[in-house]
Amino acid sequence: MCFNSFFFLFFFMLINFFFFVYFIMNGLSVFFEWEIISFNSMSIVMSILLDWMSLLFMMFVSLISSVVIFYSKSYMNSELNLNRFIILVLMFVFSMVLLIISPNLISILLGWDGLGLISYCLVIYYQNLKSYNAGMLTALSNRIGDVMILMIICWVMNYGSWNYIFYFDFMKNDYVMFIISFMIIIAAMTKSAQIPFSSWLPAAMAAPTPVSALVHSSTLVTAGVYLLIRFNYLLIDMFFFKVLLFLSILTMFMSGISANYEFDLKKIIALSTLSQLGLMMSILSLGFPDIAFFHLLTHAMFKALLFMCAGVIIHMMNDIQDIRYMGGLSLYIPLTSLCLNISNLSLCGIPFLSGFYSKDLILEMVSFNSFNLMVFILFYLSTGLTVFYTFRLIMYVMINDFNLMMIYNLYDEDYIMLNSMFVLLFMSLLSGSFLSWFIFSYPYMIYLPFNLKLMVIYVSILGSILGFMVSNMGIYSLNKLLLSYNLSSFLCLMWFMPNLSTYGLSYIYLNFSQILFKNIDMGWSEIYSGKGIFNILKNYSVFYNIYQMNNFKIYLFSFILWFMILFIFFFI
Amino acid sequence: MNNNSNKMFFLFILFFSTLISISSNSWFGCWIGLEINLLSFIPLISNSKNLLSVETSLKYFLTQSLASINFLFMILIKFSLLKNFNMNNIISIMMNSSLLMKMGSAPFHFWFPNIVEGLSWMNNFMLMTWQKISPMILLSYYFNKNFLIFMIITNLIIGSLGGLNQTSLRKLLAFSSINNLGWMIFSIMISENLWLFYFLIYSMMISMMISLFFLMNMYFMNQLFINNMNFFIKLNLLINFLSLGGLPPFMGFMPKWIIINFLLINKFYFLTFIFMMTSLIIIYYYIRIIYSSFMFNYFKMKWVNLLMKNNMSLINLSSFISISSMILSTFIFM
Lengths: 572, 334
Description:
The complex is a heterodimer.
Chain A: H1 2-26, E1 30-39, E2 42-50, H2 52-75, H3 82-100, H4 105-123, H5 129-156, H6 175-191, H7 200-203, H8 209-230, H9 232-235, H10 239-261, H11 265-285, H12 289-316, H13 334-348, H14 354-368, H15 373-399, H16 415-439, H17 450-470, H18 480-483, H19 485-492, H20 497-528, H21 531-548, H22 552-571
Antiparallel strand pairs in A: 1-2
Chain B: H1 4-22, H2 27-45, H3 51-81, H4 90-103, H5 111-118, H6 121-129, H7 133-141, H8 145-162, H9 169-190, H10 192-216, H11 231-245, H12 253-265, H13 269-290, H14 312-329
Helix pairs in contact in B: 1-2, 1-7, 2-3, 3-4, 3-5, 4-7, 5-9, 6-10, 7-9, 8-9, 8-13, 9-10, 10-11, 10-12, 11-13, 11-14
Keywords (chain A): Electron transport, Membrane, Mitochondrion, Mitochondrion inner membrane, NAD, Respiratory chain, Translocase, Transmembrane, Transmembrane helix, Transport, Ubiquinone
GO molecular function (chain A): NADH dehydrogenase (ubiquinone) activity; NADH dehydrogenase activity
EC number (chain A): 7.1.1.2
């Protein structure tokens, strides 16, 4: 099952690649429309849009998913129901492809809802309590986005069809489009985990690692960004775009800080994904959708690779995910640490790896176009924080001493997992340049003063030095976290957003509903409708029964009495 | 007097007496029919070997003869003192009261549960269905609308409230009969055709119920689940009870529906409310009887096996009729 799906998806990737090259070289865009049923004045039509963006994204999705399925053959080989897992992953890929190729809102809704549902199934795959909680948080946060898209479907019916692509040119300043743009931004924010919906992404790390590699690094969370890229032409002058800018740079900043306090390997990687998502959203809301798309694709490559390396390490460390137990792994697992290092450095934006092309372009565009000071500062600060936590991670995992047990066997030669990582390694090295040559037919004009150009390097060096210094822990190190406990807990716990999303939403309402249930359902409404009325009726019936069981003579006499009364009335 | 041919003779006279009563063109003829009715019913229900049935037949005789005497007296007063024929009158109230007493309708109904308790099922069937025909038709000849509406309300309330505390199946059916009398009297005021329709359906439902209880020889509620009824008998019981209560897809809903339709069109809102609420109470105590036989966790004693000897087909047919006749009847109009 694994091999079949791997080969199928790999072949699919190759097809997409060839079509992508053909389409982008010739500037083609194909729109299929299939009329399912047409009845009097109503017609149901299924449409598919294939242009270079959707083909490229499909190629990347199928590449990552094929590699992940191949990887999970070895990662999840002790799983009894591996077929179930593979089928879930395949359904996920199918929903994603449906989302990518659809130019109308109904098939977007199908793909979107499918993504949310299947990611819930995958997050709760290991059926323990933590997975259940994480799955509930994931599913309900995604559900908000689903509701928003359903409402957009309602509103877009004003225009006559659900093919939103055709309406951008004509209806830009309409009130309906205003509402639609608000809702689409909220939908994308829930899917891509911006503030205030960002608590589900670190929690969803309770899923198996192949799922994290596929879903939470490259496909599910980028669906929101992709949707906004499709809708970009509509949103570009709207007020809400500026709100999105604000929220996304705050997300970027917050997750960068929180990743520095984290000690769980997958959570660090999740928070770095969140930071990069904030980066993508912010550059999109500044008005550069193609750069956002570019960063989406390169990020997908190295983040999936990073998750897969984390999976190998977790397997090796006897399923422990805490980085405080790891150390010195570069000496023992050279190939895995090669992949880990390259993906980490690509994340930081080290020159000429894939991440450099997209990240550096983003930062230069931010510096070149005049935005305000806060945007500028937060962008560069977040880049520095990225390097900070990356180097901290590398120090903890690779360089410091090994902390787990006295006797250990660090096994790297699982070539199934390694081969799948090598594919992504190849792509993560080359995809930056390859994509930039394809997507940007001419380079952006950027003219910066010297120090501003080198600002990236200054910030990166600063971050790396800080990362190095922070991870120098000895036996007698002072726990500086406890010195500033309140501030640290605020920054570490993701600015308390998980608490808001879980306790804050459920505690008050559950409390209130308990009061209501006790007092009304089991209280007053019983006495006024349920048992109370029964008691009244029963008492009437008992009274009547006493009245009924009477002397027969009395009854006959009462009848005669009645007639005597009537007689008297008659003769008055 | 266990001789069947005797009973058949009196049964023949009973039927004939009703026909005399309703087809005469003078009030005397009506009274004669009522007397012959009484006289021929008494031998049917009295059985000298059983002291309870003797007492029952005596009670029946006393009440019915009192009512007949009053009826005769009112007829004579009406003929002699009132030369004109106007409806809203004390005399009409008095005549209606005596007829109501003959039927066993409230507020003169106190003999009815007592007597029903003392009779066997087949005699009950006669009492509840056939004996009501001639008083009702006579009621329709000369009724006082205001008095009758008040009596209807009393009927409904007593029929529903009285039955809540009963455990004897006969008394239960007696109170439901009083309740249905309320509906029937109102249907007389609408149209006689509608009364006929209601009466026929009601007697069909009562006949199904009573035949079922007669076959299983059940007189009290605790006997309901001692014998192991198989599924179809329980189903039949359920359907008949719900149909008697007037639940929609069953046959018993149809006449009540037409009556409610009339009520609402002519804006009898308060009366509709009373009809509805008392129906709810009645359905409550029907369902109370049978629901435990239909839950997954029903009460069953294993040492008594009910042997349904013959005529399962009749039971199946009756359930089929109860379920489907309302829907099938709409096909007539297609």
